[in-house]
């Protein structure tokens, strides 16, 4: 009985986690209307301003949280790095002083 409960719990956990996986971005590596794609530095900027952009995007249809017309891996790296810098998290986070 215990084994079947663990198996069902594991199956549910896998399904829930699979539901959180992002989908494909078909606009990646394709230029926008102006013929540009966002790169590392634009990703860095978008990551840094992401908390503010998120709040604005909730109330506006014209502001997006993430640039879909990007160059792929470098934009994503810049975005994550920028978000980490803003939130003082990750490898660049501050450590608490002891004592």
Describe the protein's architecture and organization.
By secondary structure, the chain is mainly alpha-helical. 52% of the residues lie in helices and 0% in strands. It has four helices and no strands. The protein has helices at residues 2-19, 40-48, 50-59, 73-86. Helix 2 (40-48) packs parallel to helix 4. The termini are far apart. The model has no long low-confidence stretch (mean pLDDT 82).
**Element-level helix/strand string:** HHHH
State the major sheet.
none
Instruction: Compute the CA-based radius of gyration.
Output: 19 Å
Structural class: mainly alpha
Low-pLDDT windows of residues: none
DSSP, total strands: 0
Q: Fraction of residues in helices?
A: 40-55%
Please report the number of helical segments.
4
Oligomer: single chain
Beta-strand percent range: under 5%
Overall, the morphology is extended
Straight-line distance between termini: 50 Å
Quote the average pLDDT.
Answer: 82
Topology at a glance:
Elements: H1 2-19, H2 40-48, H3 50-59, H4 73-86
Helix pairs in contact: 2-4
What's the short version?
By secondary structure, the protein is an all-alpha fold.
Please tag this protein with its features.
99 residues, mainly alpha, 4 helices, 52% helix, extended
